[in-house]
Amino acid sequence: MPDQDDSLLLYLNDAIATTRNKEDLFRSVTEKLRLIFPFDAITILTLDAEHQYRRVFLRDYLGEMLLPDQIGRKPLGRTPIEGTPIELFVRQPHLHQYDLTELLDTYPQYQPFGALLERGMRYFTVVPLRTSGHLIGLLSLVARRHPDFSPNDIDLLEKIGSLVAVAVTNTLAFEDMARREQEKSMQLALNNALLSIKERGELFRTIATEINHVVPCDYFGVRVREPNSPVRALAEFNKQSDGTFAPLDENRYDDLPHPVQNKEAVVELFSKPAVYVGADFESLSRQYDLLRYIREQRGTQSILCAPLDANGEPAAALILASHQPLAFTEETLELIQTLVPQIRLAIQNVLAFEQIDALRTQLERERTYLIDEINTTAAARLDDFVGGSAVMQQVYTRLAQVAPTDTTVLITGETGTGKELVARALHNLSPRKERALIKINCAALPAQLIESELFGHEKGAFTGAHDRRIGKFELADGGTIFLDEVGELPLDLQAKLLRVLQEKEFERIGGRRVIHTDVRVIAATNRVLEDEVAAGHFRADLYYRLNVFPIKLPPLRERPEDIEPLMRHFLERFTKQMGKPVRGLRERDLKALRQYGWPGNVRELEHVLEQAVIVSQGPFLEFAGFSAAAQVAPAAPEAGGPLKTLKDQERDHILAALRRTGGRVSGPNGAAVLLDINPKTLEARMKKLGIQRTVEVK
User: Fold this and answer.
1) CA dihedral angle for residue 173, residue 42, residue 61, residue 103, rounded to 10 degrees
2) Which DSSP string corresponds to 420-439?
3) Among 102, 154, 360, 509, which is disulfide-ready with 457 (CB 3.0 to 4.6 Å)?
């Protein structure tokens, strides 16, 4: 039937020349072949140039065509032909027929043959596919009945094989061109995203969308692991029903059982390039709880992992997942790996931008804080020490010894002795002087607000938390924090402060993220903390953590030789500030000032001199009311007389201040301003000491 054969060849040649769609082309080929040669299944395999690997190009069972992404449970990547019957077929130069039962005797482990026999197919015909004399693949025809081919049939099939070889070559070339064009478009889009997008979420959403155009996936994630830190998600997205990608909550596994939460278990799995699909993924899901969870609850059936590591950088990996059982192949992995440099650059850019942003934010916070500090401390120059007494020389020596270190310092002393001045000197003489000194008065805030002030809070953490607040410990990162009146901290907060000192980490109120901080702690108190520990008001473990290097400041009454230099210092400052003339100091006034006990110490001396500069009119300074105050608290008890307790001294000092202000506590002319403490703190002290304004200050 030469005319029929020529007609078939002409039809096939025309179909190959005009049809570009692979599915339409090979449906036409198989339909025409089935009319002339009875067969039940047809398979086309392609071979690499060295004939080491094969790939399924098309398979047709009983008229049901299956393209590569629809076949079997294994990925259709390159498969080695060594040790398989494909080696035998490749060695045959012409069409050859086989009995599957005989082939199975030689290759008993070759599963495809067993599957064909189970379907009743037994006879196997292999036609080599050649173009320009080169073997590019194999066409196999399988039938239940033995085909009776004449020499003309064999010749026709080999000619058809040549035409099919041309069709396969053309199709592969077109697919390769289309794939390369798509890959170039994707790489160009990624480059544009890197150049134009700085925000992490938007950048990685764009990367996920572009990759999805070439490698369809349902999940896109980039996970990083810095040294000595747990794995964290840099970006995670899930495909929505409309095809767009939405971010996932990093803490979505926190409420699940611990084995599922344990993401560290699969780190090793993601640390090497690999594709896990079909049976391989099912096997891994039995081994790893997290994979079993996402398979059962999320429907995941395929995963692709591509490490993004670079020398000296945090370990990172790109992970793609899909609901399709055979979504990824080795070729898919090779393509994704070509994108690794761009994605790694995206990570570097994101981390750099975020670091710059964090530094800018921190600098802005420090600037705001320091401006507030300047505004609130402009009336007090606390940048110089005055006084050369022996006891103060000991203080200077200890200060110089500990300042260059990061050691925690506990400054003790009565109110007004200059504890904040020492804290500032410690900071300014330390390697941290370029960063901020953050101070907080633990006695000036209600107990319920101190924790937020120290550690910050998240938006919505409690009633009134309308915005996120950055705590003082976070603000002081890299610098120094000064905890004034640390003895006033409630016991529950003492435990949290102890954790910061021990672990260098904390969490905001209402937050889940652990924040690491590098802060030098300087604490101060006018209480005797050993007594507070004995009374159960202060934690012993926190006391020993704070009292690493104690500095005790002597009261002013123990260094009377420093009173005159301090007076000269304050007088010079106040006369310049107020534009007042320089006035003389009577010897009797100086003697009285030296004999006074100064329960308010240097701060009280400063305020006395400030008032004297304001009210003085003649050639000498006038200390109106000072003699009355001196009678309240004599400089020292008479020989053999009783020594007043610190509590009594404090009570007398507050009473003296109230007498000067006519019983007024707050306001610009109140006792709180005179004593330089918060009005609420003063009221609390008065209540504790039993001072009632209406009774005591008459």
Assistant:
1) -130
2) HHHHHHHHHTSTTTTS-EEE
3) 509
Which 3 state secondary structure label does DSSP give 132? Answer: coil
163 phi and psi angles, rounded to 5 deg: -65, -45
Q: What is the pLDDT of residue 4?
A: 64
Domain 2-177 is of which CATH architecture?
A: 2-Layer Sandwich (3.30)
* Mean pLDDT confidence for 517-526: 92
Distance CA(59)–CA(288), nearest Å, equals 35
Residue with tokens 């009594």: 648
CATH class of 560-696: mainly alpha
Extract the runs of DSSP E, i.e. beta strands, from 263-358: 274-277, 302-307, 315-322
Confidence (pTM): 0.46
User: Domain spans of the chain?
Assistant: 2-177, 197-352, 379-552, 560-696
DSSP string, 544-561: HHHTTEEEEPPPGGG-GG
Q: Rounded to 5 degrees, what angle do the CA atoms 332, 338, 341 make?
A: 140
Tokens for 133? Answer: 């004399």
Which overall architecture, per CATH, does domain 197-352 show?
A: 2-Layer Sandwich (3.30)
Which fold would CATH assign to domain 379-552?
Answer: Rossmann fold (3.40.50)
Q: Are both 379-552 and 560-696 of the same fold?
A: no
